[in-house]
Specification:
By secondary structure, the protein is an all-alpha fold. It has one domain. The protein has 2 helices and no strands.
Length: 63
Amino acid sequence: MSDILLRAQVRVQSTLYFLRHRQEGQGLVEYGLIIASIAILLIIAMLFLAGKLDNLFSDTGGS
């Protein structure tokens, strides 16, 4: 009887360890965060440069 309980305890502990230390998908999340950060930076840059770009295109188109 104690052998069955010991095996069950070991199996539960092994499963919990595996679930806590699993790293599948972590790289995908990191790449997603990097892409989101770059997109946010590009949007902020476009907001600050919008007036200058508009003037540049107007001057170029008017030449």
